RNA sequence: GGUCCCGUAGCUCAGCUGGAUAGAGCAACUGACUUCUAAUCAGUAGGUCGCACGUUCGAAUCGUGCCGGGAUCACCA
């Protein structure tokens, strides 16, 4: 039984014993005591004093006394207004450290028999990964680690958007402008190589569009279609898509390519495979560097057919309906949404069709209890719709669907816009952050006696810790501002700060030659007490983080614990402690802090260096 | 316009199942390294928690209405 449960039980028993009162509705609010008051846990007794028509101070005193009498874990209490502050006995604190925190399974929960599938990353194959993907990938990885620690069996998957018009644009640009160049011949990371041709297409298309708008035909169309009050610029952006589909030569060629692809033209398919493989190779390098991996990849080119079939079956069973032009729709007006297209009038599939197929295929593969989609919040409507459709189809997993809708990342200069080249590239960003860590480290010179290889490993760990922590510490649902300068900070509320606490501990532990920390120290001071109580909250943090799918809770917890340790390290001598018992206790305490920090940061995909 | 999300210190963020005097980091300023490595610690300064009303013993937290910002409402993905 945990201490919180002890308190709750004691309060209930006390209320029954002294007031013959049984709690029905009100939850008992128990929080860690604020540091300006004395005590370890605080029970808020206001709600009961109201019901019992007792003064809060009196009720608090009665309950406090009752708890102390009944439970030897509690040594003292004080009451301020309606707040009952309880102080644990030193023995209880020590037991907490030795029996709970140092237990081998601390911070992991036994398997709960539930399977969860986490989809993340899921990039398009026409351009390299950027900052937005990094947030997605890091969230995916830490949600996986956290849910696993909480007892779930987790499968990490992606859906690769490997087909469609966007990929055809890259392919077409390569055909038109590359003159047979390859990533190797150009000496460019392969995903970036393909991305260059996507950008090239957009440039050429913009030029073409601009020229057309100024032509006789363009001006005529503008006059005909322009809405009242609409400026030329507004028209230009509104009409762009229609221009692509109806008037553009490049657009026609790209669409022609898509048609060839859908018809299985072997030359097109070969080139498509070849260019996609370049992208996959590039992505793999980035994933590896970020330290993430996936159990299974799904490709749209494999799943859209199942989606189509499902929609056709649904049509036969009248879950969906068909319009006169042959297009298939779902009516979600009863669910508070709209009508949504599922198959085009020409019978081809759309985004939604593919996602239906993908979900069903995943269910066949894993039969998960939950499916978590980590996708930016701009797609909230899409996933609302998808989940309602799957419910309509009576998918067995329909009640376990969850869209972890994280906020987009802004730059200090404003929104990221990939079409305007205003993006932060994932690979470049990692280079920069590692370079910053390297420069900082070399300046300190504390690693000079290590080989260059070991040094580089540490620089990488520090740089990536800075980057990952910077992103993960923000609540995923919130839009965040990414300042590249701050992301390479190594001081303050950062990953390296937490790493530093760990490194300090390692450095101390190494100097103590024995491995036996048993001790009879009982004179536990405030800082030590706070550290132990804080660590005791770790398993609860994991459950909360898993429940809310919020890794930022773990990041902030690790920071708080590291901060408390740094304070301890500064104020309390360890190896030079006044007695052997004290020394051993503090070593034991340090050792457990290191374990919790390391485990917690591992949940975020951040590794600890032994030195820094 | 409909729907949804967000507004906390100069900046980036915690806190939000209602609880004590709203917390961190960065930036600014002051102090602490012959010491278990200072990527650290201690301190100063910085707030109308967007605004208003309501709910109650108590509101940054809940409700309503405004104001400001964003997302979305494609036979795009």
Secondary structure layout:
Blueprint lengths: L2 H17 L10 E3 L8 E4 L1 H7 L3 H15 L3 E7 L2 E6 L1 H12 L13 E5 L11 H19 L3 E8 L4 H13 L5 H4 L3 H25 L1 H10 L6 H15 L2 H14 L3 H25 L5 E4 H17 L4 E2 L5 E4 L7 E5 L7 H16 L3 E7 L3 H13 L8 E6 L2 E3 L2 E2 L10 H19 L7 H21 L7 E2 L2 H4 L7 H17 L14 H11 L1 H11 L3 H20 L8 H23 L10
Parallel strand pairs: 5-6, 5-11, 6-7, 11-12, 13-15
Antiparallel strand pairs: 1-2, 2-4, 3-4, 8-9, 9-10, 13-14
Helix pairs in contact: 1-3, 4-20, 5-21, 6-8, 6-11, 8-12, 10-11, 13-14, 16-17, 19-22, 19-23, 20-22, 20-23, 21-22, 22-23
The chain binds one RNA strand of 77 nucleotides through helix 2, helix 15, helix 16, strand 15 and helix 19.
Biggest sheet descriptor: 5 strands, parallel
Taking the alpha carbons of the first and last residues, their distance comes to: 40 Å
Put simply, the count of helices is: 23
Structural class: alpha/beta
Stretches where pLDDT falls below 50 for ≥5 residues? none
Tally of extended strands?
Answer: 15
**Cα shape:** globular
Round the mean pLDDT to the nearest integer and report it: 91
Measured as a percent range, the helix fraction is: 55-70%
Radius of gyration: 30 Å
Q: Beta-sheet strand percentage?
A: 5-15%
Task: Please list the strands of the largest sheet in the order they lie side by side.
Answer: 7-6-5-11-12
């Amino acid at each position: 039984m945990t201490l919180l449960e002890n308190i709750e039980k004691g309060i209930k028993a006390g209320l029954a014993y002294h007031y013959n009162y049984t709690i029905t509705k009100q939850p008992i609010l128990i929080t860690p005591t604020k540091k300006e008051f004395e005590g370890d846990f605080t029970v808020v007794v206001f709600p009961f004093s109201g019901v019992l028509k007792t003064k809060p101070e009196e009720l608090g005193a009665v309950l406090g006394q009752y708890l102390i009498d009944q439970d030897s874990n509690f040594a003292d209490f004080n009451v301020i207004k309606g707040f009952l502050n309880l102080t644990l006995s030193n023995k209880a604190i020590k037991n907490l450290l030795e029996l709970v925190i140092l237990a081998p399974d601390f911070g992991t929960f036994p398997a709960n028999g539930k399977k969860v599938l986490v989809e993340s990353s899921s990039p398009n194959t026409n351009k390299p990964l950027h900052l937005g993907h990094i947030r997605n990938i890091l969230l995916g990885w830490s949600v996986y680690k956290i849910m696993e620690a909480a007892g779930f069996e987790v499968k990490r998957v992606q859906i690769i958007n490997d087909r469609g018009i966007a990929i055809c644009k890259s392919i077409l640009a390569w055909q038109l402008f590359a003159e047979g160049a390859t990533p190797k011949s150009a000496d460019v990371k392969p995903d970036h190589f393909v991305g260059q041709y996507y950008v090239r297409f957009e440039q050429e298309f913009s030029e073409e569009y601009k020229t057309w708008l100024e032509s006789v035909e363009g001006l005529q169309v503008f006059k005909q279609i322009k809405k009242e009050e609409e400026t030329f610029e507004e028209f230009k952006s509104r009409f762009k898509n229609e221009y692509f589909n109806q008037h553009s030569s490049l657009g026609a060629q790209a669409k022609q390519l898509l048609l060839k692809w859908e018809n299985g033209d072997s030359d097109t398919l070969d080139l498509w495979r070849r260019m996609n493989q370049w992208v996959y190779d590039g992505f793999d390098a980035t994933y590896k560097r970020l330290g993430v991996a996936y159990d299974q990849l799904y490709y749209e080119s494999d799943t859209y057919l199942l989606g189509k079939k499902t929609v056709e079956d649904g049509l036969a069973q009248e879950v969906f309906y068909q319009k006169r032009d042959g297009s298939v729709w779902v009516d979600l007006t009863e669910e508070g949404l709209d009508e949504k297209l599922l198959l085009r009038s020409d019978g081809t599939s759309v985004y939604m069709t593919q996602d239906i197929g993908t979900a069903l295929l995943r269910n066949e593969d894993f039969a998960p209890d939950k499916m978590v989609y980590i996708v930016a919040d701009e797609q909230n409507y899409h996933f609302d719709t998808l989940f309602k459709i799957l419910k309509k189809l009576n998918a067995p997993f329909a009640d376990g669907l969850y869209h972890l809708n994280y906020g987009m990342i802004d730059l200090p200069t404003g929104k990221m816009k990939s079409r305007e080249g205003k993006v932060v590239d994932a690979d470049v960003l990692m280079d920069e952050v590692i370079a910053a860590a390297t420069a900082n480290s070399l300046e300190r010179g504390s690693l000079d006696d290590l080989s260059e290889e070991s040094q580089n490993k540490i620089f990488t760990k520090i740089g990536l810790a800075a980057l990952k922590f910077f992103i993960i510490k923000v609540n995923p649902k919130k839009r965040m501002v990414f300042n590249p300068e701050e992301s390479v900070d190594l001081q303050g509320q950062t990953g390296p700060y937490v790493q530093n606490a760990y490194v300090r501990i390692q450095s101390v532990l190494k100097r103590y030659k024995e491995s036996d920390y048993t001790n009879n120290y009982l004179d536990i001071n405030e800082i030590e007490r706070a550290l132990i109580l804080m660590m005791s909250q770790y398993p609860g943090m994991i459950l909360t983080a898993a429940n809310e799918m919020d890794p930022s809770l773990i990041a902030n917890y690790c920071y708080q614990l590291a901060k408390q340790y740094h304070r301890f390290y500064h104020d309390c001598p360890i190896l030079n402690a006044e007695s052997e018992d004290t020394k051993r206790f503090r070593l034991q305490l340090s050792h457990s802090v290191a374990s919790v920090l390391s485990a917690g940061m591992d949940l975020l995909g951040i590794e600890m260096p032994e030195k820094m």
